[in-house]
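CO-FOLDING WORKSHEET

Operator: S.A.
Ligand of interest: zinc ion
Run index: 161
Mode: holo prediction, single chain
Checklist:
[x] sequence pasted
[x] SMILES validated
[ ] output reviewed
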Amino acid sequence: MTSNCIGCGREIPAERTELGYTYCTAPACQAQYRQGPTVTAVAVNKSGDAYRVAEPEDIAARAAAGEFATKNTGLGTVHQDTPRVPAPRRPTTRPTRPTRTARPATPAWTPAWTPAQENIVRLYADMGLSPRQIAARARENTPRLGITEALAVRILSSPRR
Ligand SMILES: [Zn+2]
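OUTPUT RECEIVED:
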């Protein structure tokens, strides 16, 4: 199984023919027909370029056939060194455990007034003042405590702590 060089017509060695060459190794024929292997960088993934040695037409044909499409989708034909933003990590789905509703350790009954308010109200009450008088006195002496008549009533109607 031999064939002849398409350039000079000389017989091409069989092993060369088997490799698919159609021209001989003569310098003139090499210069005329040889297409040097073209190194084409194909962006494969972020880790780097894969260098494929192939004829340009071959690369183009294979690219058109979609051979590289699955690997370089989104990277385009020009490799960029910009690091890809890692996808946000999804919280791993765990079996939902009934979470105990965190409740502050407070007694069921919570006074709606401050100790300072209660001290003043009880002090005035011990002096014999009515809630109305307590509120008036507190407004005068300790306006920041915001003691009202209603509050004085509520404090005085609650058990002394
Ligand atoms: Zn030849």
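REVIEW:
Residues 115-156 form one domain.
Strands lie at 3-4, 11-12, 38-45, 48-54.
[x] output reviewed
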